[in-house]
Amino acid sequence: MARRFSGLLVALGLAVAWEAVSRAKLVSPLYFPPVTVIAATFAKLTVSGLLPAQAGLTLGRALAGLALATGCAVPLGLAMGVSRRMRGLLSPLVEVLRPVPPPAIIPAAMLFLGIGEAMKVFVVFFACVFPILVSTADGARAVPPLFRLTAAAYGVSRLDTLARVLLPAAGPSVAAGLRTALPMGLIVAVLSEMIGATSGLGHYILRMQRTFAIPEMYAGVLALGLLGLGLNAAAQWGLSKLSPWRKPPGDGMGE
Amino acid sequence: MRLAALALLCVLCLAAPARAADPASVTVGYIPVGDCLQLYVAEAEGSFAAEGLAVKGLAMKGGAVIAPAVEGGEVAIGWSNTVSIILAHGRGFDFAFLAPGAEGKAGTNDVHALLVPAASPVASVKDLAGKTVAINTLGNINEAAMRALAEKAGLAPEAVRLVEVPFPDMATALAKGSVDAALTLEPFVTDAVSRGAARILDPSPHAAFGDPYLIGAWFAKKSWIDSHPREAAAFARAVAKASAFIAAHPEKAREILAARTRLSPELATKIALPRFPEALDPAALQGVIDVCARFGLIAEPFPAAGLLAVPGH
Fold it and tell me: How is the beta sheet containing B24-30 ordered, strand by strand?
């Protein structure tokens, strides 16, 4: 508790310093408006419903892409974990595509999917699928063979073994993959909204910058930060409910 | 020895005024398109050097990058479409137009056009309700023009969805069906239409701004103009000279344009060129300001004179 309090003090100190530097015109107050001005703009835009609506659209795109990625990556990852053949089939493809930075896929995605929703969701999917896939495969591979052999000895069907033995045992690894994918999905959703979009926080921030509405631009950035924070907290809570036998690997921030 | 020193001193004294006349270096941010033709002509014809300026041109993506560079002092003078600077002025930025850039005149010098795919069912602007239109940058002259066009067609100004697509990518976006229309400019208009890929839905999308209207201009921070009156005035004179040259030698100007924008010489002879006025006309700017105010891009209209700096007067 004391540690969290001192962390807040650092944030508060930075805000006060920003305010003072801006008010004293040490930096251009047009580009670095005082924190109080940004906060007031943020409050106004939140109450008017503008920021929550844009944040909702961004969140929707991020979650849609993440859900698609999870749906594909978890079964494939489990299969890669238990079957050497599947590993051999998929590993080269994964190893080639995984290091591609997701933003680099946006121009290509625009060519075959246009600039609509499908492109944005696909880019999020692309960013999220590999962390989940790799970490699920690793987790499934690390499950002691004894678990499977025991299940087989009791005559448990292969599908049941997958769902009731393998998945729970690999659960923490799947959760770790999801935790990695989640912030990435949000980042990429915002990026995709900065190209050829008409809505979402990424679009809003870019538009405000283009029209010199600088406090509004920072308010958008602040909304994005808070959205990320909330998403992270929700993920931590949700995943701890899903695999209560082990704490999901923390990132050292929320302890 | 003493005599030699004295002689040297005399030479130095004589040399001093020559030193003061050394070309003053000025960095200028521009967009590598036809609208910035004055800069290429002034460089090619040596107008900057004749005015005692060493201009270093910096090609940039658009007004959204140039304005922050001018504000931060990275470049002294920049080119921008007028709406971006009007918006910045409304937000308290200390910019002023120094020299006129391209001017449009509906019917004769239309460098912009609203395009739709050749096989599009869209017959008029009215059919664009709820459809998506590509513009190069949000919150600029083309957004204001689209809003005005929608209103003229009897639609709500917000009825058309605007997306940001760079000019060179618009033809592809149209062909892919990602956008239903695109507000683009030369040489892309002539290129797409002559290839049969698109047809012109509206040949004068900027008509709402008045006739003529200022598309873009060269701007600087007022504080820079005040502290560099000599350079500011010299730049304005060189640009005016370039405008006169373009009017007098359009073919030569097109050659310079082709060389500078990697345009094929054939296309360079076909495209429409904007007019380049020699003096800043407040009336040509006022129409743009009024349209911005009408569509809520700025809170209220202001007199165009507040945005003009006439150096050396």
Answer: B53-59, B24-30, B77-81, B216-221, B95-100
